[in-house]
């Protein structure tokens, strides 16, 4: 086997090359270490937020946010195109700030397709919300208009009802003051001479569909559904007299007839 002869010059050369390589690796490691600690575009802002959030270093930020080491580098470099929307949202959550504020402060580009899609969706939702708000406002104004219209209709209906009722009772109302004067001047005037003047009142009740309950001084069986007794001990079915009639409309008792065991004094 041939013998390999290594001269001292070769050994010195190899040692020199090795030292250079080791020094270069060490320098690169130091450079990377320094660069990883500070020196990227967004480091100053991120470090300030990390301090406020109680995050000690980049590793702690990576663990708390769930980002990969590469994603943290992209974040520090401001390389938004290579960061996922969910990752940015998680970082914003860690720093307790709105995502839009994070993107603005870090100057991250909006060209990120995922971010742009979310931005478009956000704008769409904002537009829809604005449309709903306008629709609610329109409905509110329409409600106010309808309310005012209904109030006006109520006034018109009330006025029409008053005019109609006055027309029905006009003869009675115009005659009533004269009747009052005649009775005062001639107390002996027979009441039957005045009864015909109350015909408009009977006509009005008939037109409204109001039905009379009982007849004056009529003897009937007491019915608590339609009668109001003058004595609470009157039993149901007991014979009583109608002193004052009542009225009902379509089965609803407007006022019960007032009844008593006896007729008014002198009646009968």
Overview of this structure, please?
- With 268 residues, the chain is α+β, with helices and mostly antiparallel strands.
- It has helices at 8-37, 43-53, 58-65, 69-77, 85-94, 99-106, 113-185, 192-195, 199-208, and strands spanning 211-213, 219-221, 227-229, 239-244, 246-249, 252-255, 257-260.
- Mean pLDDT is 79; it is low at 27-38.
- The termini are far apart.
- Helix 5 (85-94) crosses helix 6 (99-106) and helix 7 packs antiparallel against helix 9.
- The chain has a 4-stranded mixed β-sheet, with no helix packed on it. Strands 1-5-6 form a 3-stranded antiparallel β-sheet.
- It folds into 3 domains: 11-109, lambda repressor-like DNA-binding domains (434 Repressor (Amino-terminal Domain)), CATH 1.10.260; 110-208; 210-268, no CATH class.
- The longest helix is centred in the middle third of the chain and has 73 residues, at 113-185.
- A hairpin with a 2-residue loop joins strand 5 and strand 6.
- The relative contact order is 0.04.
Describe the secondary-structure layout:
Elements (H helix, E strand, L loop, with lengths): L7 H30 L5 H11 L4 H8 L3 H9 L7 H10 L4 H8 L6 H73 L6 H4 L3 H10 L2 E3 L5 E3 L5 E3 L9 E6 L1 E4 L2 E4 L1 E4 L8
Parallel strand pairs: 3-7
Antiparallel strand pairs: 1-5, 2-4, 4-7, 5-6
Number of DSSP helical runs: 9
What is the CATH C-level name of the largest domain? Mainly Alpha
Strand order of the largest sheet: 2-4-7-3
- Profile the largest sheet: 4 strands, mixed
Succession of helices and strands: HHHHHHHHHEEEEEEE
Head-to-tail CA distance between termini: 163 Å
Gyration radius from CA atoms, angstroms: 51 Å
């Amino acid at each position: 086997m041939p013998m390999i002869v290594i001269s001292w010059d070769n050994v010195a050369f190899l040692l020199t090359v090795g030292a250079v390589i080791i020094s270069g690796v060490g320098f690169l490691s130091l450079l990377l270490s320094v660069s990883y600690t500070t020196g990227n575009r967004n480091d100053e802002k991120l470090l300030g937020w990390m301090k406020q959030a109680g995050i000690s270093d980049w590793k702690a930020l990576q663990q708390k946010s769930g980002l990969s080491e590469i994603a943290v580098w992209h974040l520090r470099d401001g390389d938004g195109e290579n960061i996922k929307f969910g990752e940015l949202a998680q970082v914003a959550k860690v720093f307790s700030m709105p995502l839009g504020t994070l993107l603005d402060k870090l100057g991250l580009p909006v060209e990120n397709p995922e971010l742009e899609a979310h931005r478009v969706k956000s704008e769409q939702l904002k537009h829809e919300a604005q449309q709903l708000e306008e629709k609610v406002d329109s409905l509110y104004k329409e409600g106010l208009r309808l309310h005012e219209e209904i109030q006006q209709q109520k006034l018109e209906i009330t006025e029409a009802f008053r005019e109609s009722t006055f027309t029905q009772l006009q003869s009675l109302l115009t005659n009533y003051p004269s009747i009052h004067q005649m009775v005062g001047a001639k107390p002996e005037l027979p009441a039957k001479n005045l009864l015909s003047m109350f015909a408009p009142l009977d006509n009005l009740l008939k037109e409204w569909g109001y039905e009379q309950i009982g007849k004056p001084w009529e003897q009937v069986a007491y019915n608590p559904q339609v009668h109001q007794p003058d004595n609470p001990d009157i039993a149901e079915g007991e014979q009583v007299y109608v002193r004052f009639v009542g009225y009902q409309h379509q089965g609803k008792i407007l006022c019960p007839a007032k009844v008593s065991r006896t007729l008014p004094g002198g009646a009968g």
